[in-house]
Design goal:
The chain has eight helices and no strands. It is an all-alpha fold. α2 packs across α3 and α6 packs antiparallel against α7. The longest helix has 28 residues. The radius of gyration is 18 Å and the shape is elongated.
């Protein structure tokens, strides 16, 4: 991430990029701490190649990764050539806080869900059950909400309109992934349909 931000920018003197890196490092450290301390079995789940992953999920995750890479390169080039304007320091600081809160929600969701895999699949070998605690009391997919908050905020933080357009593409794919995962869980995970009756919102309470 540092390379694809600072190399195109041609400078290290770019505090919003350092802020984005700090948020991402905090997310990685927080997620790692939660998995190692609370869900060590989940570490094995993430490190081993598992069967049962959905093909549509693999495709969406790959596309999001590609768009993310392009977005950071574009943001770096925008910083170098000054394509964008209109992002005040206050807006960037608010975006930094929003991105940090989004990834904080992601870490909270990881702590509350012992089956928080990186791919959409039913973990029958681990006795997969529905997560209902923590942020799952309010929305069915809180981690996606957290990532979407970061995706929407990071391009504002970096001050790039073209990067913001690419973030919108990532957000659209994340919303689609949320809907597809929700459908798969309703069909395949025992107890999820009843949980969906109690917690009606996928991402935004009272809206969707």
């Amino acid at each position: 991430m540092a390379v694809v931000l600072f190399w195109p920018a041609g400078t290290l003197d770019w505090w919003p990029a350092w802020g984005a890196l700090a948020v991402s490092l905090g997310w990685l450290a927080g997620t790692g701490f939660v998995i190692i301390r609370l869900h060590p079995d989940l570490l094995a789940e993430r490190l081993e190649r598992r069967t049962g992953a959905k093909r549509w999920d693999t495709a969406i995750v790959g596309l999001i990764g590609l768009v993310t890479l392009i977005r950071y390169i574009v943001a770096g080039l925008d910083q170098r050539y000054g394509w964008s304007s209109g992002f005040s320091p206050a807006a960037r600081l608010i975006a930094l806080a929003a991105g940090a809160l989004g990834y904080g929600l992601f870490v909270w969701a990881t702590a509350a869900n012992a089956f928080f895999s990186q791919v959409v699949r039913i973990q029958t070998e681990r006795g997969h059950t529905v997560a209902t605690g923590g942020p799952y009391r309010f929305v069915r997919h809180p981690a996606y909400l957290g990532v979407i908050a970061y995706e929407a905020a990071v391009s504002v933080l970096l001050g790039s309109w073209p990067a913001l357009a690419l973030s919108a593409v990532s957000v659209a794919m994340l919303v689609a992934r949320t809907a597809l995962e929700d459908r798969a869980l309703r069909a395949e995970l025992p107890g999820y349909a009843d949980y969906a009756v109690r917690v009606r919102s996928r991402l935004l309470p009272g809206i969707w």
